[in-house]
Structures are given as C-alpha cells and as structure tokens.
Amino acid sequence: MFLPLASSRTTSLRPASSGISPQDWAILADFWYPVAIGRELTEKPRRATLLDVDLVLFRGADGGIGIAVDACPHRHIRLSGGKVIDGQIVCPFHGLRFDISGQCRHVPALGRDHKLPASYRVRSFPARERYGLIWTCLGDAGHHDIPVFPNLDGIPEGDLGFVAPRLWEVSAARQVENFCDLGHLPIVHATTLGGDKSGAVKPGRVEQASDSVVLEADYVETPADSPPRPCKFTYRVILPFAIDFTVRDPSNDVMHAYNIPSPVSAHRSMVFQSIKILPREAGHPSNARVQKAALDVFAAINQEDIDVLAGLMLPDMPLDQHHEIHLPVDNICGAYRSKLRELGLGKVQISVE
What we know:
Number of strands: 18
Structural class: alpha+beta
Distance between the termini: 32 Å
CATH topology of the largest domain: Naphthalene 1,2-dioxygenase Alpha Subunit, Chain A, domain 1
Largest sheet: 7 strands, antiparallel
Number of helices: 5
CATH architecture of the largest domain: Alpha-Beta Complex
Low-confidence stretches: none
C-alpha cells in the first residue's frame, strides 16, 4: 500500500518486474526499435511498450515526435490517456503539459506566468522516422544505428504496404527464428506457401557479417490452385531483431520486405512488417493490386505461425546447443544464436560476496 520510508527514488528505467535479466536489458536497450507506423500517429497520443517500459508517443506542433515514459511525474497518471494540444501532451489528471523534449511547459494550478523549474519534466527518448516507422532507443542512442534496408532506401512511404502490427506471444528472438525457418514452411504453411511435405528441405547457404547473418535458399512454393513456383529467398538477419527479406520468382518479380519484432517484454513482441513489390513489366497487374495480395498472404502466414507458436513450451531461447536437437536446415538459427552470444546476451552474472 505504501512505499517504505527508507526507499530511495529509483533511476533505473528497467522495471523490477521485467522478465529480461538486467544484463540482457542493458545490452538490448542500446539498440533502436520501431514502436509505431509513422502515418498512424496523428492528433492523438499513442501507447507503446518496449522492453517492459510503457511509453507515450505524440506529434509536436512542428510535426516532430515526442516519446516519453507513459506516466506524469506529478501523480503518475498515464499521459496516453490525455490529449495533445498545440503539440504538447496534456495530463488528464491535473492538466500538466509537456513538450516533445519532455519539459513541462504549463501547470494550470500554478497560473499562466509561473516559471517552472527544469526538474518538472518527464523522461523522454529520441525519435526518428525511417522506412515508414517511428523508432526509438531507451539506452545509448549513439551505440548503434537504425537497421538499414538498402532495397527500401529512397522509396516513398506511400509506396510501402504495411501489414497491421500485431502482438505475438513470443520473444523477439523466437519470432526472428520462426521467420527464417525453412523447415516449417511445407508443414505449417501448406495452404499459403505450400511445398513438398515428404521431400527433404535443403539448407540454404549462410554467410556472416559483423552485424548480421545472411541465408540464401531455393524453395519451391506450391500455393493452393497455383502451379509450382521456384523462388529464391534471401534473409538478412540484422542484430538483434530485424530481417531484410527478398523473394525472387521465375518471372523476375521481386518482393522486398522487412520483418521487425520489437521486444515488448521477455516473451512478447510487436511485429512490424512492410512490403514493396517491383513488377516485372508494364503489362503486369498494378503494384497496388499485387501488394494488397501479398499483404493478405503475409497476414494469413502470420496467423498460421501464431497458432503453432502458442504451443511453445520453452519460451526462452537457448543460446547454447544442448537444450534442443538440431537439423541441417537449422543452420541459420545456429549462426543467429552465435551472433546473439557475441553481443553478450544470455550470460549469467555471478555475484561475488
């Protein structure tokens, strides 16, 4: 009911209830993650959760973006329950107003001309818009940059098709592995992607870079009511949780996409996906029509994955080898987990007394 009298004001951003270890949280907090689709942030504030931290997002008067802890520092009411007036977020309880930097600019109970101390502020975070998404970083924003998707650079946001962001009840790392898991395609996605259920799934070729691993694989899709379609898949898995995905088919159509599970908590992720399709020739159906069909397929595939992953009995990803058996087609998973270990994730800090 009461905070102990001897308790000090915490400065740690990581909630004590977080299921992410303090060591892993500190590593992950230095990366940039998407928290919303840019065009969906309009005149109303939005809520988001990243690494167990509740956030509020709002547009400033000049179109800039404010991202802050979703709690007014006065009496800890959610700011996302308030309004945005003249580019400032207004607390619904006592009307305190905060600009996109987090600084309090007005307290109604103090009157209009009262000078406010600098300490009247809400903890805020940097915000950038790229690839149609709003990104933020909870830690050292200069330690890493936003993932780069070269095939989508320079493409107007209006030409990108977005799958509706959806909360998956799995960790971001598990969602990444699922996305580039070739072995489950003919089983889980028999009706959407198809494939030879009785034939061997050939492992793709894996290459490693400093911040990513790449899988190139051939796969024959057999979607319902369609002839077999040999495709070349390229997955570039960018640390810690992003995939730059390209599909090339025999007709020379090329689909570029990204899949980014933003870590909400230890075992939940908000998945952002976008697609850009390049038609092979002028007589091809309109890009918008093809893109809409691809988005529908992505959504159906997602649901198939979500249904299966609901049966996951080991939610934490093992970063060593002895907790699971492994197949040759799992080579991308082994390479990805190795990269996560290199980041320092999964280590147990032993305290010396």
